[in-house]
C-alpha cells in the first residue's frame, strides 16, 4: 500500500505565501552563479528550480549574481500570483 497522499494545489494570495532563498556559488575564477529556491508555502510546491531551469549567470561578482537571483525570485513570485501554476 502506498503511503503517498494527494495534496491539492493551493494558490498563494500574497508575497508572504512564498519562501524565497537566494545565494551564490563560485565556479572557477570570477565566475559567480546565482542560486535560487522558490517554494509556495500554501502547498509546498517548489516553483524554482524546476527540471530544465537554466543557470543564473555567470557574473563577474558575487553581488551581481545575488542580485540576479533575487530579481528572478521576485519575477517568479509575481508570475505565480498573477497566474498560479496548479
Largest sheet: 4 strands, antiparallel
General form? elongated
Structural class assignment: alpha+beta
Proportion in helices: 10-25%
What series of H and E elements makes up the topology? EEEEH
Percent strand: 25-35%
Which parts are unreliable, with pLDDT below 50 for 5 consecutive residues or more? none
What count of structural domains?
1
Q: State the total count of DSSP E strands.
A: 4
Rg from alpha-carbon coordinates: 15 Å
Summed up:
The protein is of the alpha+beta class and 86 residues long.
Structure description:
With 86 residues, this protein is α+β, with helices and mostly antiparallel strands. The protein has one helix and four strands. Strands 1, 2, 3 and 4 form a four-stranded antiparallel beta sheet that branches. Strand 1 and strand 2 (32-40) form a beta hairpin. The longest helix has 21 residues, at 62-82. The protein is elongated and about 45 Å long.
Features:
four-stranded antiparallel beta sheet, elongated, alpha+beta, about 30% strand, 1 helix, about 90 residues
SSE inventory with pairings:
Blueprint: E1 18-26, E2 32-40, E3 45-48, E4 56-59, H1 62-82
Antiparallel strand pairs: 1-2, 2-3, 2-4
Amino acid at each position: 500500500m502506498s503511503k503517498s497522499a494527494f495534496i491539492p494545489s493551493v494558490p498563494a494570495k500574497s508575497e508572504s505565501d512564498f519562501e524565497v532563498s537566494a545565494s551564490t556559488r563560485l565556479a572557477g575564477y570570477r565566475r559567480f552563479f546565482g542560486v535560487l529556491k522558490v517554494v509556495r508555502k500554501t502547498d509546498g510546491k517548489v516553483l524554482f528550480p524546476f527540471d530544465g531551469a537554466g543557470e543564473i549567470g555567470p557574473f563577474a561578482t558575487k553581488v551581481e549574481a545575488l542580485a540576479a537571483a533575487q530579481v528572478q525570485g521576485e519575477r517568479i513570485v509575481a508570475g505565480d500570483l498573477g497566474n498560479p501554476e496548479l
